[in-house]
Specification:
This is M4 family metallopeptidase. The chain has about 260 residues and is of the alpha+beta class. It folds into two domains: about 170 residues, Neutral Protease, domain 2 (Orthogonal Bundle), CATH 1.10.390; about 90 residues, Immunoglobulins (Immunoglobulin-like, Sandwich), CATH 2.60.40. The strands form four sheets. Strands 4-12-11-7-8 form a five-stranded mixed beta sheet, with no helix packed on it.
Length: about 260
């Protein structure tokens, strides 16, 4: 944000790279300033590689990393909040939850982050508390459940940081939990998910499997969901009990989640 505010294209041009100006542009190290040079590469825990030791996706494994490497999800959150997952600077970049984020721009992002840092964070703030702090800051500056507020929430979800809504009762979409499901292995599935938006906004449906830590690990093998209608079809090819997450998102980035079990016999 300092680079953007200074706007010195002939010197340290505005970008989202860390350490790029200190490198000699003629040397190989300049091609890989951290943390945003290679946001699409993956590391073993599913994080997005930006430096060999720094990851973008929050997980419990961050606790074992040194302080500077633990900052990765916050760095990536801020980039997605400001620039989004598709920008002229870096083109399309992946997100940890596979969902796109439309940035709100540098000016609004910097105000939200500054307000959160100065009014709602302290030395003990962890990632979940940082999410609440920035949501509160967005609500104070721009109103709760507006585009700015919802983009803060989406950007945190995009780096695998989720939690409760500090301002419940907003205008988020309504999603009906279908209840636990039981099917035979290989049997065809035809399950209609029911959802609506209070303002009649178009909805997008997604489905994900959850691991034992309730973190998303990808779509259920053999099943797919129609993004516009919410119809789940396909067939599960392996026996077991699966944790499934449903998300419905409206056109201004408000999202509602629900979870259920799917048993395959």
């Amino acid at each position: 944000m300092v680079e953007s505010y200074a706007n010195r294209p002939s010197g340290d041009r505005p970008d989202y790279l860390f350490g790029d100006y200190q490198f000699d542009r003629s040397k190989p190290s300049y091609s890989n300033p951290w943390p945003m040079a290679n946001p699409g590469r993956r590391v073993a825990d599913g994080g997005l590689l930006r430096d060999p030791k720094q990851v973008s996706c929050w997980s419990a494994q961050l606790a074992g990393l040194s302080r500077e490497w633990r900052s990765g999800p916050a760095d990536y959150f801020y980039y997605l909040l400001a620039a989004g997952s598709r920008s002229p600077l870096l083109g399309a970049v992946p997100t940890c939850d596979g969902r796109p984020v439309t940035g709100i721009g540098n000016a609004k992002a910097e105000k939200i982050w500054y307000r959160a840092l100065t009014a709602h964070m302290n030395v003990n703030t962890d990632y979940r508390a940082a999410r609440i702090a920035t949501l509160r800051a967005a609500a104070e500056l721009y109103g709760d459940h507006g585009v700015e507020y919802n983009t803060v929430n989406s950007a945190w979800a995009a780096v695998s940081v989720r939690g409760a809504d500090p301002f419940p009762g907003g205008s988020a979409p309504r999603l009906t939990n279908p209840g636990d499901q039981s099917t035979r292995m290989g049997s065809p599935v035809n399950l209609q998910i029911e959802a609506s938006d209070p303002r009649g906004l178009p909805l997008k449906y997604t489905i994900e499997m959850l691991d034992s830590n309730m973190e998303e690990v990808g779509p259920p093998a053999g099943l797919s969901i129609d993004a516009s209608t919410g119809l789940i079809t396909g067939a599960l090819a392996a026996k077991g009990t699966y944790q499934v997450a449903l998300t419905v998102t409206n056109s201004i980035a408000e999202a509602t989640n629900t979870w259920f079990q799917w048993t395959v016999t």
